[in-house]
C-alpha cells in the first residue's frame, strides 16, 4: 500500500502543475500527427486503448509470448494516467511451460510543452510496476520498480521547402531510469541482484499521411495513403550491482496504418545481441482513439475541458 499512496501523491502533484490550456488529442502538434508507437512509449497525453498488443520472441532462456492491454486517460488536457497489464506465456528451454499475469503497471505523464509551429512535444512522466500483483510462475517481481522518464517528439515539417521530401519525417523518444525498491532477492541460497537500469529509445517515422496532406499529393490511394513506416530502437543498460554495461535491446522496423478512430501496427523485433535474443520476433497492436470514438464522454479530460 505504501507504493499506491506514493503513486497517488505523485499524480496529485502533477495535477497542481497542469496548465489549463487545451491540448490536442492523440498526438497532434500543429499539423503533425504522432502515432502511438508499439515498442517505445509515445510523448503525448491522450485518451486511448491498446487492445491487444501481442508479441513473441525467442530469447536466450526460451520463447516468450505476451498479450498486453493498456488504457490511457487524460485527467486534465495536459496530464494523463496510464494502466497496463499483460498475460505472459513462457516456454523456457529444458523446463516446463508457464503462463500467467505479470505485475500491474500504472503511470502518469505531464505534457508540459507543445509547439504547433515546430511540431514539437515534451513530456515528463513516471511509471511504477507494482510488486506481488503478478504471478510468480511467470517471474513477476516481488518488489516494485519506479521509472521516471523524459519524453520528446519532433516533426520535420518546419524544414525549408527545398527539403520537402524530409518534412514527413518525425522523431519520438524517451530516456528513463528504472529503480527497483529492492537491491536484491534471495532464493535457494542464491542472491539475485537488481540494478538500476537506464532505459532509452526512439522511433524514426515517415508519415505518408503528412506527405499527402501537408507536402504534396503524390496520388497514393487507400490503404497506402494512411501508412506510417517506422523503425523503433529500444535499449536497456544496467548501471550497477555487477551488471554495469550489459546492454540489451531491439531494433524494430515496421508500419502503422491509422484512421480517425483506430490504428493497426506490426513490427519485427530484431535483437541487437545474443544477450537479448536468438531470433527475430514480431509485435502487433490494435489501438483505439477514445478521444475521437467518445468525444463527449470517455474520450475527454475529466477536468479543464472546453
Description:
This protein has 306 residues and is mainly beta. 9% of the residues lie in helices and 50% in strands. The chain has 3 helices and 17 strands. The strands form 3 sheets. The protein has a 12-stranded antiparallel beta barrel. Strands 1-2 form a two-stranded antiparallel sheet. A two-stranded antiparallel sheet has the order 11-12. The chain is globular. The two termini are 35 Å apart. The N terminus is likely disordered.
Give descriptors for this structure.
306 residues; mainly beta; 12-stranded antiparallel beta barrel; 3 helices; 50% strand
Architecture blueprint of SSEs:
Blueprint: H1 2-17, E1 28-29, E2 32-33, E3 48-58, E4 62-76, E5 79-92, E6 98-101, E7 105-115, E8 120-129, E9 145-155, E10 169-180, E11 184-187, E12 190-193, E13 197-206, H2 208-215, E14 227-238, E15 248-258, E16 262-271, E17 281-289, H3 290-293
Antiparallel strand pairs: 1-2, 3-4, 3-17, 4-5, 5-6, 5-7, 7-8, 8-9, 9-10, 10-13, 11-12, 13-14, 14-15, 15-16, 16-17
What class do helices, strands and sheet pairing give?
A: mainly beta
Return Rg in Å.
20 Å
Biggest sheet details: 12 strands, antiparallel, barrel
Unreliably modeled segments: 1-24
* Structure summary, number of beta strands: 17
The number of helical runs is 3
Amino acid at each position: 500500500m505504501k507504493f499506491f499512496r506514493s503513486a497517488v501523491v505523485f499524480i496529485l502533484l502533477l495535477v497542481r502543475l497542469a496548465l489549463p490550456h487545451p491540448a490536442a488529442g492523440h498526438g497532434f502538434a500543429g499539423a503533425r500527427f504522432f502515432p502511438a508507437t508499439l515498442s517505445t512509449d509515445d510523448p503525448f497525453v491522450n485518451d486511448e486503448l491498446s487492445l491487444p498488443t501481442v508479441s513473441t520472441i525467442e530469447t536466450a532462456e526460451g520463447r516468450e509470448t505476451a498479450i498486453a492491454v493498456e488504457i490511457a486517460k487524460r485527467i486534465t488536457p495536459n496530464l494523463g494516467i496510464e494502466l497496463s497489464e499483460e498475460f505472459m506465456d513462457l516456454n523456457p528451454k529444458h523446463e516446463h511451460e508457464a503462463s500467467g499475469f505479470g505485475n500491474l503497471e500504472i503511470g502518469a505523464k505531464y505534457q508540459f510543452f507543445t509547439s504547433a509551429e515546430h511540431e514539437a512535444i515534451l513530456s515528463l512522466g513516471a511509471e511504477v510496476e507494482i510488486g506481488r500483483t503478478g504471478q510468480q510462475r511467470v517471474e513477476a517481481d516481488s518488489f516494485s520498480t519506479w521509472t521516471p522518464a523524459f519524453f520528446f517528439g519532433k516533426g520535420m515539417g518546419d524544414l525549408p521547402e527545398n527539403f520537402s521530401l524530409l518534412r514527413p519525417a518525425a522523431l519520438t523518444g524517451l530516456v528513463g531510469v528504472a529503480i527497483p525498491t529492492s537491491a536484491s532477492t534471495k532464493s535457494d541460497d542464491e542472491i539475485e541482484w537488481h540494478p538500476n537500469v537506464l532505459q532509452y529509445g526512439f522511433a524514426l517515422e515517415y508519415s505518408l499521411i503528412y506527405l499527402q496532406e501537408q507536402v504534396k499529393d503524390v496520388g497514393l490511394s487507400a490503404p497506402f495513403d494512411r501508412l506510417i513506416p517506422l523503425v523503433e530502437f529500444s535499449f536497456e543498460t544496467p548501471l550497477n550491482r555487477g551488471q554495469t554495461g550489459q546492454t540489451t535491446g531491439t531494433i524494430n522496423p515496421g508500419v502503422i496504418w491509422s484512421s480517425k478512430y483506430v490504428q493497426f501496427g506490426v513490427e519485427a523485433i530484431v535483437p541487437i545481441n545474443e544477450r537479448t535474443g536468438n531470433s527475430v520476433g514480431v509485435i502487433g497492436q490494435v489501438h483505439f482513439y477514445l478521444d475521437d470514438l467518445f468525444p463527449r464522454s470517455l474520450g475527454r479530460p475529466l477536468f479543464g475541458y472546453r
